[in-house]
Design brief:
Layout lengths: L16 H4 L1 H6 L2 H4 L7 E4 L6 H8 L3 E6 L2 H14 L4 E4 L5 H4 L5 E6 L9 H15 E12 L1 H6 L3 E4 L4 E3 L2 E10 L8 E10 L5 E10 L4 H10 L2 E6 L7 E8 L1
Bound molecules: S-adenosylmethionine.
């Protein structure tokens, strides 16, 4: 079982209100999607539960949604069916994408929502970025969002318990993150994520998963993008902010 197959069941408790609605999720990227031709070919290569893919399809784009987790792909398919959206879904690791799609197939590739740190070390990350780059046509753009790992690492290993219950589908869930921060940047780090729900009869239901991740510094990401033929066109990186968006253009 790959990471996220358990969390896929309770993923809505882990995402912000703004990401729950497909139209709102897609609107968060309006500054880049407005640059696309109508009928653009776009790929969401870590589609999770599918809200962004469905939102982009709602804007008239030709969407493909992929993810390494079969359970996430099934959730995306379910959301597409419920909302009447129609697009191709494929279960694929980033490094497998080029087995499924030809070079220069897409105008825009999205890798958003703290996904890239799951690529295994610098080698895995560059291989993932290389696949994404190959799939972009010249002038196409990769849109990537990331945690600010400089900040995350500075806080060290810790337990983060949400200070209020998250309500989804009429049920409350308590969200817990346990961070295992390794001494060195390049070492495997781990995040254990749990969603705890209390049933009407007082019994407690816990869904949790231990995920591996390999953090990177912003400067490293910039040079890795450059090494695979992607030029950073826009970045919101700020050393004090929790996360950032990078838009990189295929040269
Ligand atoms: C934090 S979730 C983000 C999901 C979605 N993009 C969002 O913003 O809500 C990370 C996603 O990356 C996927 N993922 C992790 N490793 C991957 C890999 N090597 N190739 C493709 N997808 C991967 C996970 O299955 C998961 O759906």
């Amino acid at each position: 079982m790959t990471g996220y197959d358990v969390l896929a069941e309770v993923y809505e408790w882990l995402i912000s209100d703004a990401k729950l609605t497909p139209a709102e999720f897609a609107a968060a990227f309006a500054d880049v999607t407005c640059l696309l031709p109508s009928n653009a070919q776009v790929l969401d290569c870590s589609c999770g539960t599918g809200q962004l893919a469905v939102g982009l399809a709602g804007l008239g784009m030709q969407v493909v949604a992929t993810d390494a987790s079969a359970a996430m792909v099934r959730r995306t398919e379910r959301l597409a069916e419920e909302t009447g959206a129609s697009f191709l879904t494929v279960r694929a690791d980033w490094e497998e994408l080029t087995d499924h799609f030809g070079d220069a197939s897409f105008d825009m590739v999205f890798c958003v929502g703290n996904s890239l740190h799951h690529a295994e070390g610098a080698r895995g990350r560059v291989a993932a970025l290389e696949s994404m780059s190959r799939l972009l046509r010249r002038g196409g753009r990769l849109v990537l969002t990331s945690r600010n790992w400089e900040l995350v690492r500075s806080r060290g290993s810790r337990l983060d318990i949400s200070d209020r219950m998250v309500r989804r589908n009429g049920r409350d869930g308590l969200v817990i993150y346990r961070w295992e921060i390794a001494p060195q940047w390049e070492q495997e780090h781990r995040i254990e994520i749990a969603v705890v729900q209390v049933e009407g009869d007082g019994s407690v239901l816990v869904r949790s998963e231990l995920l591996s991740c390999w953090p990177y510094q912003y400067g490293e990401l910039e040079s890795e993008l450059h090494s695979v033929g992607l030029r950073v066109e826009k970045s919101t990186f700020d050393p004090e902010a929790e996360g950032y968006v990078v838009v990189a253009t295929k040269e």
